[in-house]
Amino acid sequence: MKPNKTMERIERALWNAGRVSESFVGSSDWPDGVMAEIRRIGPLAAKSSVRVHAPATVWSWAAAVAACLVVGIGWYAFNDLNADAVLAGLFLDDPTGWTVNLMLVEM
Amino acid sequence: MNSEGAADSDRAIIERVRHGDINAFADLLTRYRAWVFAIVLKHVPPNLAEELAHDIFVEAYKALPSYRGTGEFRHWLAGIAVRQCFTFWRRASRQPVCCVPNELSNETQTWLDRSSQMESQEQFDRQASRQATRELLAYALDRLDAEDRTLVTLLHLEERPVREIARLMAWSPINVKVRAYRARQRMRRIIGKLRKHEEEPHHETQ
Question: In terms of pTM, does the model score above 0.80?
Answer without folding.
Answer: no
